[in-house]
Amino acid sequence: MPKRKKYPRLPNGFGSIKYLGKNRKNPYGVYPPSDRVNEEGNYLYPKAICYTDDWYVGFAVLNAWRAGTYKPGDEFLFRAQRRACQTDLDDFCARILADHSAQFHTDLARKEHAPTFAQVYEDFYRWKFGEAKKKLSKQSRNSTRVAFKNSACLHDRIFRDLKLQDFQDCVNAGLKREKPLAEASLELIISLHHQMAKYALAHDICDRDYTQGLYMPDAAGDESGVPFTADELRILWDHKDDPVIEMALILVYSGWRIDEARHLDVDLENQSFTGGNKTKAGKYRTVPIHPLIFPLVRKRIKEYGCLLPVTPGTYRLKFHNVLSRLGISGDPIHTPHDCRHTFSALCEHYQVTENDRKRMMGHSFGSDITNKIYGHRTLPELRKEIEKIVKDLDG
């Protein structure tokens, strides 16, 4: 049995041409270089550029792809050229390289002069905090710096070469650290990437905003916290006229994150909230406004035009100060996210169905395909569930 012919070894990072078996019409798969690894450290091969019947045709495709001139179907043109040079492979390869050399070197020169993520950040930071007309706070500066520091995996990458998955991998990496980043830190990373992409697009650094599909990983939604006790809830209700406590009660009886509350669509006529932008499962969900907090919601909309007229960071600071003044310390110290934990605890205590609790909190159904894909609940059905919750935890 004749041995299969050996072909030249391609350099690292060039791409690969793989023989997939003799029982295929086009047994050679042409693959771009892989820059992703799995948990075991092995490279993950991307989708093939094309499949062909000849290694040298694959070589031509790979060269064209690297030069940026390949279009789907070009392999048929290369196949015809290959047959025309059947007896002179050196001539065929020379023609391939000659056709794409100029474009390849132009592309190489572009990459050498294209700014990295870190360089774009420097220009963006100078523009945002120096040249822009609007003066921003010191907290905003610090948050931007922290988000950049937590994006270290992208610092040396060419910005225009970054795709959605690169940005998402950077966000996801924050959860894989020895000490995972908090949800607020991940949100800062996403916000920075959005802002930098818009800046780069406006300044012709890139041709497309690949950050549009960024989302908060599901695991980030499970920020640790401690629910308010029944006694602490009574203290909150006794001070419901305080604007900070008023907002806290709205969060306690709706389950929204403080970061989501600022951008909610409040429908007073149908008594519902719609919004959410942290995780795939939590996007664009609708939650009924509980009757206990409806007067508070209506009051804030009338006074401020929205639920949260300050930044989440400012609210967190006020929240801590007011709770300290009221003697509600908590162990550990309560945060606004504890309002969400309290809502979850109330749902459990008053036997709100588990599926509806997940829906209203924007939690994933995981491998439960039935509820994830086919579970549909109307606003009245959700209202019936949320109204099981009453004012006290005495049940």
From TrEMBL:
<dbReference type="GO" id="GO:0006310">
    <property type="term" value="P:DNA recombination"/>
</dbReference>
<dbReference type="GO" id="GO:0003677">
    <property type="term" value="F:DNA binding"/>
</dbReference>
<keyword id="KW-0233">DNA recombination</keyword>
<protein>
    <submittedName>
        <fullName>Site-specific integrase</fullName>
    </submittedName>
</protein>
<dbReference type="GO" id="GO:0015074">
    <property type="term" value="P:DNA integration"/>
</dbReference>
<dbReference type="InterPro" id="IPR013762">
    <property type="entry name" value="Integrase-like_cat_sf"/>
</dbReference>
<keyword id="KW-0238">DNA-binding</keyword>
<dbReference type="InterPro" id="IPR010998">
    <property type="entry name" value="Integrase_recombinase_N"/>
</dbReference>
<feature type="domain" description="Tyr recombinase">
    <location>
        <begin position="223"/>
        <end position="387"/>
    </location>
</feature>
<dbReference type="InterPro" id="IPR011010">
    <property type="entry name" value="DNA_brk_join_enz"/>
</dbReference>
<dbReference type="InterPro" id="IPR002104">
    <property type="entry name" value="Integrase_catalytic"/>
</dbReference>
